[in-house]
Write a structure and sequence with these properties.
Blueprint: H1 12-35, E1 41-42, H2 44-56, H3 61-74, E2 81-82, H4 83-102
Antiparallel strand pairs: 1-2
Helix pairs in contact: 1-2, 2-3, 3-4
């Protein structure tokens, strides 16, 4: 490599940021693919697929089951759930979980290592 063709190698945080961006875009794509278009009805099969995608995205089995169950409970009285409402409910549930983690007193937090995905607000979920 010559002096004139030198390119600075990306640092650790730049590579991590790029990897998380790709993961976020992939997750958003899969969720949008499962849920369909804005006012199309969402079936139980689609909710099951959503459950699989969230578990595959390392959201955790317990958290995923909680989110999907809350969506089912929140929409039980509806004749059918439309895709835009599903995405909105899912986003609300995930934000609620993250806010609960942020507000726990320091002594009450678990000692297990954990990673919080704080880009849920910016996900491509209307």
């Amino acid at each position: 490599m010559s002096l004139f063709n030198y390119r600075r190698q990306p640092g650790y945080f730049e590579r991590l940021k790029e990897a998380l961006k790709t993961t976020k875009e992939d997750l958003s794509f899969k969720i949008n693919q499962i849920s369909g278009q804005g006012e199309s009805p969402v079936s139980d099969d689609q909710l099951d697929e959503l459950e699989s995608v969230l578990i595959g995205a390392d959201l955790g089995v317990e958290t995923t089951l909680s989110v999907v169950d809350r969506i089912r409970q929140g929409t039980r009285s509806d004749r059918f759930v439309v895709a835009s409402r599903l995405r909105r409910l899912m986003r609300e549930q995930l934000l609620e979980i993250m806010k609960a983690v942020d507000t726990q007193p320091a002594g009450k937090q678990s000692v297990k290592p954990r990673v919080l995905f704080n880009s849920i607000q910016r996900m491509h979920l209307p």
